[in-house]
Amino acid sequence: MKNSAKDNPSKRTSLTRRHFIKGTAAAAAAFTIVPRHVLGNGVKSPSDKLNVAGIGIGGVGKSNIKNLADENIVALCDVDDNYAAEVYKLYPNAKTYRDYRVMLEKQKDIDGVVIATPDHTHAVIAMMAIKMGKHVYCQKPLTRLVSEARALTEAARKYKVATQMGNQGHSGEGVRLICEWIWNGAIGTVRAVDAWTNRPVWPQGIDRPKDTPPVPSTLDWDLWLGPAPMRPYNPIYLPFSWRAWWDYGSGALGDMACHVLDPVFTALKLKYPTSVEASISTFVSPEKMWVKVDNKETFPQASIVRYNFPARGDMPPLKVTWYDGGLLPERPAELEPDQSMGNGSSGVIFIGDKGKLMCNEYGDKPRLIPKTVMDSYKQPPQTIPRIVGSHEQDWARACKGGEPACSNFDYSGPLTEMVVMGNLAMRYPQKKLEWDGENMRVTNFPEANDYVQTHYREGWTL
Asked: Considering the entire predicted model, what is its pTM?
């Protein structure tokens, strides 16, 4: 590993990057992998190649592992042999497992793990790995519950491991441009933000299935359930639609807001909201008959979530409004008739007292509106370091003792807490939940706090 600023882009502007990555001093503490230059004489050290294990590899985990293919992929774990079969073939030298606990206890050469399982198992897997001193890359949302996100954030700090959440847009150019423009006063003071997604693109607002088909021989259903309550297997949950169910997923908000709201959280220097409220759809129309649903099993078909944030430094109080399920904010008068909002499926509008800024779901393609304003805008100098390579490679550099990854848990933990607070509000629609973020407590509806904490089935714990 070369040790010059020229060859290591993460070293060139460390002070600026440390300012950009909030609260990462603890995460930057010394790691166990020794840089090659310390050994000298051309001796190859472990820092040249991480030993990586993938957990949950049949879906997005496949692409995460691919982006780390220059490292050593030493172990692969999935509860569904059939779903994971293609990835197993791609890495024939990797040992394979069904149970991540067996893998972590048995295979001692693992430096870091990539977790891309359904949301409900993120916390328990990540916590075990962290306590064993493994570096962790975990897909978004980091967790389903506020308390889980807080626990992982604090554990990563305590055990001094390198972490990254899989909101890949945070490594992109767009989020950095948005920060530079807003911090330079491009649209003046921002007091409101609208954000939206077209998701869900899976069934929501439905009841639990009645039929109980046999579990496929290639699937370990008990391991797939993990800490969630026991219930009969049904193919409606796998491999993707688990996102709809309260027990397993985080709905449209949890799926997309870690992307869509990421530039908002960063550019406007957010942390905990002071209050959250939600409106949700309560009717579905199967076979052209309107039926009222209670949304106890799944997230609603559509929702609007309103977050309120306090003043931050020289930034005033802020209102962020989230729309999903096809609902949209008011179309800006400044947007040309032939232009779509966002990328047509997701987007953000920053509303300033001197103008508006719009971007796509990952902070991509930010632009001032109307186009005439963008065309005449003189962009400020770059003040935020850019990430070289993929989001996964940013994490790999951190694992080897480099700068903290850009979406390490000190950043992405609080981001996740904000996101899943919206889901908590959906449990109590049209009630304004007053939130004490430091103490993770709803102050005006004590019963809501039951959904802040973890309730795992017997045998499972953080």
From this structure: 0.90
